[in-house]
Design a protein that fits this description.
about 45% helix; mainly alpha; 4 helices
Length: about 70
């Protein structure tokens, strides 16, 4: 299972869930689920928007090693 590290990336940039939702132009419930790494499926468009909003590549949204805790940005 892949771990998302969106919360860590956002916090490193001073963004909260509401700001992520607005900046990435995604619905708040989607941002909330991604923030808490509670998504069962990932919509490609949503991931692209989040990555663009955070200034990273889509692959950077995932922790590099699924067996470890998400890294700090």
């Amino acid at each position: 299972m892949a771990f998302m590290q969106i919360r860590q990336l956002c916090e490193a940039r001073g963004l909260n869930i509401t700001e992520l939702s607005r900046k990435a132009e995604i619905p708040y419930p989607s941002a909330l689920a991604l923030w808490h790494d509670d998504s069962k499926q990932f919509n490609r468009r949503t991931l692209v928007r989040v990555a663009r909003a955070l200034g990273v590549k889509v692959g950077d949204l995932f922790a590099p090693d699924a067996d470890k805790e998400p890294i700090e940005a």
